[in-house]
Model the fold of this input.
Amino acid sequence: MNNAPAPGHQTETGLGRPNARSSDKSRPGLLVDRAFWGMICTQFLGAFNDNLYKQLMLLLAVPAVLIAASEAGEGQAMTSDIQGWATFVFSAPFVIFSGFAGYLSDRFSKTPIIVLCKVAEVVIMALGLAAFYFYDAFGLAGTWVVLFLMGTQSTFFGPGKYGILPELFTVRDLPRANGLILMSTFLAIIFGIAFAGWLKTFLAGDTGTTQDLWPGLVICLLIAVVGTGTALMVRRVPAAEPNARFSPDCLALGTAIFETLKRDRLLTNALLVSSVFWLVSGLAVPTVNRLGKQFAVDDFRISILTASIGFGIILGAMFASWLCRQGWGDRSVSIGLWGMFAALVALGIWLTGGQHLLGYNGSIVALISMGVFAAIFAIPIQVFLQSRPPAELKGRMIATMNQANFVGIMISGPLYQLFEFISNRMQWPICSVFLMMSLLVLPLAVFYRLQSTDSEQSASRLA
Done:
């Protein structure tokens, strides 16, 4: 749930309309295309690194302690964490820089942008290694600067990564390429999160220090180097709009998009619902990490809990695609919302003494279910937002959707801190945050209905 679509500006994602150049019959078949394997390996390694480092930061943010005065005036220690601020730091660059990143991906060839982004990843991972090795000198600030830089690198990598697919592959191969890259991305998320937990347990355990984790950053650095090598396998494509001029529309909501959203309430509502969904997604990961602490399991088992959501999304994506092909796209949105609400409620219930209702194994089942329903909800909404706008605005609408989604993720950071504070104040176990999250989903489940046209339903059947 933590893998929102990458931002772009005036670019088509792989699910959008293909560029005319992709229909060239001389192009090699997908599975023998060197550029395809370069893209899928580059994307996999990049997503793995992102989620490995980010999960390490979240796990390190959990044990912070908040000292609050009790009613008797004595200091009372309450478990707290700053994971929400880590989420905010990572997602802020997507909101700040995504428009400019999308402009660059249109103005120049996407191939060198992808390679330069991977070179930047090598530099950032080297800085991350230094931040961990010299943690005594730089402290948490050093690792968080690297986290912000990773978010910035991902922001500039995203538009090229998604926008280049229609320019590389034929119309025949485009759906298969998208499906395989999407699947590999979620596998990278699962493996990256799980590996982060194993690394922290193996290198530091319960008694080690943050500085003990520096060998893990050596692995991240090597992965970035290999990813740079695979990026060189991607063939160069021409610039999509070599004469594009920079304007304020490149940085924020453009005039044409604003007027379209003003006229089309269905489109606006879908955009807002999508943003709230990603807000809830941003709340899920730090809450699951803290739930693992409630179960008193090690960091590897905590990361297995978090990775369960991604596994559910993979399963749900296949089921959602089938529902859309059967013409159930609109109803899938409501099914997904009610399913997420039920999973959140189940995860949030505790028994006398703070014991969790489901326990560790039951929570894995509930988290997989939540991922399944999240995909059932999200895919029809994404297809609707791609097919609804006029053809000349599709790319910019996708960019707007991505920015709105990351606004939701960014807001989830401070909102998690608020929910966590409330749970501490009320002396509730951390699983109570899932109940607070369910209250965000409930109004959407009750009141929101997707109403797509026949042509948009046809596009949904092709998802």
In short: Residues 394-425 form the longest helix (32 residues).
